[in-house]
Amino acid sequence: GMQVNAQKMIGPVPGIEIGDEFQYKSELNLIGLHFDIRGGIDYITRGDLKLATSIISSEGNGYTDRFNSDVMIYSGQGGNLTSKDQRVVKDQKLETGNLALANSMVEKTPVRVIRGVKRLDQRGKCYVYDGLYLVQEYWRERGRGGSVVFKFKLCRVPGQHSTNLKYY
Amino acid sequence: GMQVNAQKMIGPVPGIEIGDEFQYKSELNLIGLHFDIRGGIDYITRGDLKLATSIISSEGNGYTDRFNSDVMIYSGQGGNLTSKDQRVVKDQKLETGNLALANSMVEKTPVRVIRGVKRLDQRGKCYVYDGLYLVQEYWRERGRGGSVVFKFKLCRVPGQHSTNLKYY
DNA sequence: TAGACGTAGA
DNA sequence: TCTACGTCTA
Fold first, then answer.
1. Exposed/middle/buried for A45, CB within 10 Å: 0-12, 13-18, 19+?
2. Could you tell me which of B89, B68, B66 has the C-alpha nearest to residue B149?
């Protein structure tokens, strides 16, 4: 089998280069890029401090992330944005993954960014590793129905070669 | 990436040997053993005829498969056995995967069997390829609440070396 | 035990 | 659009 049993950590993953492409989030788990097989924000806990290790931007399901050259605006998680039952959209809270991203800003620890993009055959998505980003700021917005949504501004760490995204 | 883009077909998959182990059903998809990433029965359609290519026996969720040396009793799919909302358990029907298994009996075409087994670390399952089987017979039973459940008796094709299942 | 940016196929 | 023997973390 392909089992790797990688260790969850902050920063680059040995052997993984910018632009590397994967078919499934479970592959990201095996390879050690992102362990949460459904969630968009993965993190570790150091003592009492949650710190983000990686995020996946995968358009749809109510999430509206934005990319602009080396800056991305990433939507926080929670609030039933992705629930099948979207009748009740709740406020997002600064906890779990959202809290980890806020802490990463304060601690200035880098976050791996993976972009879910449409495959060329238009059937489903694939995931492309886009390199390290730093959280620069975050704020609260009002989404549909007035519920609270967190937004995180991340800036790509300079000096990394660019990701050739041939899918857009 | 690990993309393989294998072709769905009946019989052995080149390069895959009995006892090979995988961590995720999505790996089975990549490798060409079983393409349906959730469903237990995978099949092809030849003209108007559905024929099973592979099945996964993965205990739990209301399914009660049985293994006894080279014979297995496999439960058909459907009837909401695996639905989160099990308040309404319906009769299984001889359609899609169940129909394909029935046709495989008539046509005497082999079916790849994959067994979902507990991992040694007890966290989740892994999947072990167990070789080719032939459907020998099938029948209807009454499950919980009197709903119809199909049962398929499959016999392992002789001459294949045995699967070393170190997980039971 | 429930929630989470899941995926392919009918 | 919905179903399907999903799979991890909190």
1. exposed
2. B89
According to the 3-state scheme, what is the secondary structure of B36-58?
CCCCCEEEEEECCEEEEEEEEEE
**CB spacing of A2 vs B3 below 8 angstroms:** no
A167 has pLDDT over 60: no
Return all residues near A65 (Cβ < 8 A) that are at least 6 apart. Answer: A57, A59, A72, A73, A74, A75
For the stretch B83-111, pLDDT in tens is 665 566 789 999 999 999 999 999 999 99
pTM metric for this prediction: 0.89
Contact between A2 and B27 under an 8 Å Cβ cutoff? The reply is yes
Residue A1 has its nearest CB partner, among B3, B20, B29, at B20
B residues 3..32 contacting A (CB < 8 A): 3, 20-24, 26-27, 29-30
- Lowest pLDDT segment from A58-62, A75-79, B50-54: A58-62
Q: Which nucleotide is closest, CA of A50 to its C1'?
A: D10
Task: Report the nucleotide nearest the CA of residue B125, measured to C1'.
Answer: D7
Q: What is the pLDDT of residue A45?
A: 94
pLDDT at B82: 64
pLDDT in tens, A7-64: 899 999 999 999 999 999 999 999 999 999 999 999 999 988 999 999 999 877 778 8
Q: Any long-range contacts for A57-63 (C-beta under 8 Å, 24+ apart)?
A: A57/A113, A57/A114, A57/A115, A57/A116, A58/A115, A58/A116, A58/A125, A58/A127, A59/A116, A62/A86, A62/A143, A62/A144
Partners of B26 on chain A (C-beta within 8 Å) are 23-24, 26-27
Q: From the Cβ of B83, is strand C under 7 Å away? A: no
DSSP state of B1: -
What pLDDT, on a 0 to 100 scale, did the predictor assign at position B87? 60
**What 3-state DSSP class applies to A133?**
strand
Query: What is the phi/psi pair of residue B31, to 5°?
Result: -85, -15
